[in-house]
Design a protein that fits this description.
CATH superfamily: Cupredoxins -  blue copper proteins
CATH architecture: Sandwich
Number of strands: 8
Largest sheet: 4 strands, mixed
Order of helices and strands: HEEEEEEEE
Number of domains: 1
Radius of gyration: 18 Å
Shape: globular
Strand content: 35-45%
CATH class: Mainly Beta
Distance between the termini: 47 Å
Structural class: alpha/beta
Length: 107
């Protein structure tokens, strides 16, 4: 009986321990012409989810200017996440539309 109660308690605590602390998840919406917000400030280890809000049929990929990450092609309402583990300024853009740029300031 005690073993069952301990397992139930452990199961209840695991999801909370595995989730991110408040403020470490940020959503950046984008279309083929802009990121919103275009600049984000996050802590090291923050997860940033890029969400394609473009109404067009083309897929779009988010790419780091330094080549450190690249999303899969995202269609309308597609999402992809990246965790920023290094401090500093990280520039990113849309692979299909390189003039659409954003940046993450990681502290």
């Amino acid at each position: 009986m005690i073993r069952v109660l301990l397992l139930a308690l452990l199961a209840a605590l695991l999801p909370a321990a595995a989730s991110d602390p408040p403020g470490t998840e940020v959503v950046v919406a984008f279309t083929r012409t802009r990121f919103e917000p275009a600049t984000i400030e996050v802590r090291r280890g923050a997860r940033v989810t890029f969400h394609n809000m473009d109404a067009g049929p083309e897929t779009l990929s988010v790419v780091a200017a330094d080549g450190s990450f690249e999303s899969r092609p995202l269609g309308r309402d597609g999402e992809w996440s990246h965790r920023f583990l290094q401090e500093g300024e990280h520039l990113f853009f849309l692979k299909e539309r390189p003039d659409t740029k954003g940046r993450a300031l990681v502290e």
